[in-house]
Amino acid sequence: MACFWKVCDVADVIEGQGLPVEVDGLGIAIFNDGGQFHALLGRCPHANGSMGQGWIEDGEVVCPLHRWRFKLTTGRCTTVGGNSLHRFRCEVRGDEVWVEV
Ligand code: FES
């Protein structure tokens, strides 16, 4: 059964840059896009690039390895159709970021 986990503090997530975190062995990438927080699967479907080391451009996350792009709001890949990143529910509670896994 899914439950929420505290993954980091709000201050840990630099706006526009990813932050890799781990929940129960699962790698997740946290992003702050102008104060909106998002949690996406931490591994790129192309070749396992670390999405937590990626960054945001125009509402999309960019994979650091080969620059595939994914919509922050849907996880859908806009570089190669049919690919996506799983999104997790993400909430800010006070100064903390929580993700449902
Ligand atoms: S591993 Fe992400 S684009 Fe290649």
UniProtKB/TrEMBL annotation:
Needs which cofactor?
Answer: [2Fe-2S] cluster
**Which Pfam families does the record match to this protein?**
Rieske
**SUPFAM superfamilies cross-referenced by the UniProt entry:** ISP domain
Is-annotated flag, keyword Cytoplasm? no
Q: Which UniProt keywords apply?
A: 2Fe-2S, Dioxygenase, Iron, Iron-sulfur, Metal-binding, Oxidoreductase
Domain Rieske residues, every copy: 5-99
- One example GO MF annotation: 2 iron, 2 sulfur cluster binding
Signal peptide as annotated in the record: none
PANTHER family recorded: FERREDOXIN-RELATED (PTHR21496), RIESKE DOMAIN-CONTAINING PROTEIN (PTHR21496:SF0)
Record's family?
Answer: Belongs to the bacterial ring-hydroxylating dioxygenase ferredoxin component family.
Q: What is this protein called?
A: Ferredoxin subunit of nitrite reductase and ring-hydroxylating dioxygenase
